[in-house]
Write a structure and sequence with these properties.
By secondary structure, the chain is α+β, with helices and mostly antiparallel strands. Helix content is about 40%, strand content about 35%. The chain is globular and about 60 Å long. The protein starts with 6 loop residues before the first helix and ends with a helix.
């Protein structure tokens, strides 16, 4: 397992507004440099979901069940899962489920 989101998850994050470029303004002018043009690190994805969407991802370990996750919005659990063999796989799934929750919420508004 890797520390990066897969291609589909990275694309979904970009559609939600994950930054893809940074702009520097200086005396010589303005330059825009692409960032995150490829895969997104899971740490950055988790931070983006927390800061921009208000979704908190919690990962726990239970000796009997393996790793488990909760995605929370304020004091409400919006997604959960368990029995994952690794922290990274659990976090990857939690990020994906958080994106699904956001997309479902957007569909309800429309």
């Amino acid at each position: 397992m890797t520390d990066y989101c897969d291609h589909n998850t990275s694309d979904a994050l970009k559609k939600l507004g994950f930054p893809t470029e940074i702009t520097f303004i200086g005396e010589q002018g303005t330059i825009t440099i692409p960032i995150n043009s490829g895969l997104i690190h899971m740490y950055d994805a988790q931070k983006f979901l927390r800061e921009e969407a208000g979704l908190h991802i919690e990962i726990h370990y239970d000796m009997r069940m393996g790793f488990e996750y909760e995605v929370r919005e304020a004091n409400r659990r919006v997604a959960e899962g368990s029995c994952f063999p690794s922290y990274e796989e659990t976090l990857s799934t939690a990020i994906y489920m958080a994106i699904e929750y956001i997309n479902d919420s957007i569909k309800e508004i429309k």
